[in-house]
Amino acid sequence: MNVFKDLRSKVVAQLEDMAAAGEIPTGLDFSRVAAEPPRDSSHGDAATNAAMVLSKVAGMKPRDLASLLATRLENLDVIKSVEIAGPGFINLRLDEKFWFEQVGTILKAGTSYGDSDMGQGEKVNVEYVSANPTGPLTVGHARGAVVGDALAALLAKVGYDVCKEYYINDAGNQVNVLANSAYLRYREALGEDIGEIPEGFYPGEYLKDVGKALADRDGDKWLGKEEADWISDVRKFAIDQLLNLIRDDLAALGVVMDVYSSERALVEAGGVDEVMKFLEANDLVYTGVLEPPKGKKPDDWEARPQTLFKSTDFGDDVDRPIKKSDGSWTYFAGDMAYHLDKYRRGFNTMINVWGADHGGYIKRMQAAVTAMTEKKGSLDVKVCQLVNLMRGGEMVRMSKRSGNFITLRSVIDEVGKDVVRFIMLTRKNDASLDFDLEKVVEQSRDNPVFYVQYAHARSCSVLKHSKNEFPDMDLSIEALEQVDLSQLNSEGELSLIRRLCEWPRLLESAGEAHEPHRIAFYLYDLAGELHGLWTKGKDNARLRFIVTDDQDLTQARMALVKATSLVIASGLDVFGIEPAKEMR
Fold this sequence. Notes:
Distance between the termini: 35 Å
Strand order of the largest sheet: 7-6-5-11-12
Number of helices: 20
Number of strands: 15
Radius of gyration: 29 Å
Shape: flat
Largest sheet: 5 strands, parallel
Helix content: 40-55%
């Protein structure tokens, strides 16, 4: 149960009763009324802005309206005390019994606690990674892969119907370069001395495996042939080989896509032609010459007439070319076709997770989605800034096998997928992130993945030891749900319960903002609450989780510990991480 959403409903119900009693006008809009945790916990458990947002339309002073509402709220069973603060905010303290009941709710729901129907089954497409199929995934791709995967899981948890998609950029010049690079390695695999890798080719040694696989399949079939004879077959073979490698790398990271969409297949099926027909039918294209851009000129700029999309009509800075003067399509035209295809597959809401070098592409793509869906679709783009891979504070040198980058697989092999996934979510996606291979495996509070995992492992250990201390104590969920929790009266215990109850609200707000990193922050704070209680027990025996002469108190604390472990496990599940039962 979302405590704050439920509390808001109670506030609105009182406002409706006030309107019915003639205390405030009828027909007021309550949509802006909120009930939220106060910024300063000393002010109470929750605060409502009802009087502040309604006073003007109600024709009343905020404090007068707050006084009327406060009198009604004081009579609710869950409310312990009400205080009017400042110009008219209402601070609420909830009865301890109410908080204790929430522990039972968590235990009963298990790791499903916090699940929501907020999304109402709306279809959402989350496209992420989408690296060109020209090499293995790099550590730079890891961040987008984790952010996209966690975001998809978060949205599913709050009630959306999510499709995880990878867009294969297999129609541009880069795959022709790949084909030529693979063909060179194919010749090498057949014993030819290829010398230095030519400028502009992909130099990575990973292509030796592709060349050998092609030689094993086709023998010397392509040797001595003209490029036109072999390029189509070699290109398809190389793309397939590298996509298999990418899939394997993603699987090692715990990422499994629902759909892989091919740019080449879309273009060959007439997808770009469909875009052009739509734009022409809606008078959204014209022939014109763009002004030269300031600074570095983009690849799609020409000082000659081109077919331009009226993207400025939809919030873009300049109109954008979709067809060059030579009649060839721009990359943008292909991307427009892809997003139109997503919309036609039923995805009004689209989310793309891009790398830092794509920031300048956002406005034009959002303009295209708005235009092609006739304002029925939306595109949110999450840009992931760079990851600085370090070891002991020093930048990590490049991988020889990769040519000029550090592979994702090498990082996973060294520190494990769970560490990679958690650390990639410890900063907001649009902030750069330092990933130190030594620090991420340290067993200290400064390492958030250890700190959170240790909290879960500590919970499991405490539960196990309590059973050893009291062999006849029932630790089943059914038994813990019925435990009398009134003995949990220390401020640390109540604070932990309140923190647990923030989880459903946190999930919904993070899902609404498309920000899975908020979960990492929450889990770290929650772990801190549990570790803090443990530390207090070292100084005061009566505050220990296991009180050797008091089974009832111990069982009550085990209910709280179990509830905490369930919420931590729920958060780690969104991240695709297995909660640790013990630390090595």
